[in-house]
Amino acid sequence: QKEVEQNSGPLSVPEGAIASLNCTYSDRGSQSFFWYRQYSGKSPELIMSIYSNGDKEDGRFTAQLNKASQYVSLLIRDSQPSDSATYLCAVNKPQAGTALIFGKGTTLSVSS
Amino acid sequence: NAGVTQTPKFQVLKTGQSMTLQCAQDMNHNSMYWYRQDPGMGLRLIYYSASEGTTDKGEVPNGYNVSRLNKREFSLRLESAAPSQTSVYFCASTFRGDGYTFGSGTRLTVV
Q1: Are B74 and B34 in contact (CB under 8 A)?
Q2: Residue of B nearest to A102 (CA)
Q3: Torsions phi, psi of A32, nearest 5?
Q4: Among B40, B50, B101, whose Cβ lies nearest the Cβ of A97?
Q5: Contact at 8 Å (CB) between A63 and A33?
Q6: Facing residues of B74 across strands?
Q7: Residues B10, A6, A93: CA angle, nearest 5 degrees
Q8: What is the pLDDT of residues A20-78, one digit of tens each?
Q9: Which of A62, A99, B27, B71 is deepest in the core (most CB within 10 A)?
Q10: Residue A58 belongs to what H/E stretch?
């Protein structure tokens, strides 16, 4: 089993819709969870972090964490064409301090 | 501008050549990391330095060495480049593990 798994996509949604991105992880000891956005040819940028079970909202973004199910998700409300990017889920590696293991990313395409 | 600076941005090497990728951060971060990103493979951890004076292997360390020169700088060295090391390399740093700041990347081609 891969440490962090994401559907590669592409996930296509119309402008204004809700985009739902999912991620599962294998190490139950992981405590820190992150979502990064990466535009083509650019470096990843942090958009959300979550550490406790439940939801965390920041503007149009909501991160959801369920440690019992080892599941993290990201919801993007009112999706815009500028949200079209690859979204990377990252989870800390408990044996390696703050080192993160990344999923392969989900490509999101928002059509106008 | 505060952030993570990587040099060079682009590099072409011949098989067997050596080079060092430089990374410096000015945010007083404790921990620094090197990742490589390949199509379909995502970001894979090469080496990391949890604090000044320490370095540890990540998922794919073979063929690489690192040096944490001081708190600001963390370099990645390819001693004998191979075509399999063609990739985009990212350096990142964090203060307490509350999310990374990434550099702009180095695109390396080994021919």
Answers
A1: yes
A2: B43
A3: -125, 135
A4: B50
A5: yes
A6: B68
A7: 75
A8: 999 999 999 999 999 999 999 999 999 999 999 999 999 999 999 999 999 999 999 99
A9: A99
A10: strand A54-58
